[in-house]
Structure formats: C-alpha cells, structure tokens
Amino acid sequence: MHKLTALTPLGSDTPRMDTIGDLTISEVTDRALASVAARQDQEPALRTALSEAYKMELPDVGGSSQAGVLSVIWTGPHQWMISASHDQHEQLTRDLKDVSGATASVVEQTDGWCRFDAAGPALCDLFERLSNAPVRDMQPERVIRGTLEHLGVFLWRLEQDRMAVLGPRSSAASLHHALITAARSIA
Fold first, then answer.
1. 92-100 and 43-54 helices, crossing angle to 10°
2. Which of 5, 28, 71, 162 could bridge across to 115 with cysteines, CB 3.0–4.6 Å?
3. 79, 69 Cβ separation under 8 angstroms
4. Contact at 8 Å (CB) between 135 and 124?
5. What are the distances in angstroms from CA 20 to CA 130, 131, 147, 157, 167?
6. pTM for the whole thing?
7. Amino acid 9: pLDDT
C-alpha cells in the first residue's frame, strides 16, 4: 500500500507563516473549496436550495458572505467559490452537489488553489506594490478578481487589516515570493 503524505502548496508538511515587520503572511491549507456555477435559468432555484439547506446567501458581484462555517465569494457571473473547514467538510463538493441537484455545476477545487492571508497595518501598502486593485477602497467582505504580479488571483478583504489571496496552486511559490518581496520592501 502507498504511504502518501499531504503537502502544502509550498511543498511542506506544515503551512508556512512569515512575519516581516508588522505584516504576517500565512499559507492557509485547512479549507475545502468547491466552485458552484448556476446552470442556465437556474440561479433562483439554486439560491433557494442553498438558502434552505445552509441559510446561505449567494453574494452579488464583488461580494462575500458567511453561512455558519461556510464562506462564499463571488467569482464571476452566476459563479461562486464556497469554502469550509476541511476537517469538518471533507466532502463539501458532494454535499453541495446533493443540495443543488440539477440547478448547478459543482466542482471540487481544494487542490487547485492556494491561499495566503496577509495581515497587518501596512496591508494596503503591500498590495499597492503588487496589484492595481483599489485595495484602500475595499471594505471587508469585498472580493476583486484581478492580477497580483503576473498571476490571476482573487483578493478577498476579510477584515480591515487582513486580506486573503487565492491563486493557482501551481503558482504558489511565485505568489508567495511576490508577497514576501513586497513585504520586505516596506518593512
């Protein structure tokens, strides 16, 4: 039998955390992810199904919401990414598919993405060096799809001094390098 070991997107057995000046950049690895895309003319039925099952409100353009332990971010027209603790919701995709039925296409995303949380009072200074997204104007619970350096990412303002960055797992090292380099430039 194979003895496989799970690795973080940065290739370690534990998530990485870097503190540079008053900024902390953390690799987040404990979240299950599933994308949900409403099928043609099915968005109202999907919203109803998720609301009844999870008390979940699907956010509008550029928004995010919470439904108990589930987090939801808008990712495109009629599309959302739903996140939950992996330990509690290892079968998140299957559960969402069971609830949504024929109203949506649900796809497992957990190992396709990496997430880094950046926190600290210099948060806006950090992201202004990395992206042209208007981070100073972003309020908590807002999401912007854009680029960071040369990578397509989602910037999700969690709190006034905390931002999550979701990017392709295959580019985790490049994304981490960009965050660390920019943090060092303002430390």
1. 120
2. 28
3. no
4. yes
5. 16, 19, 23, 20, 21
6. 0.94
7. 96
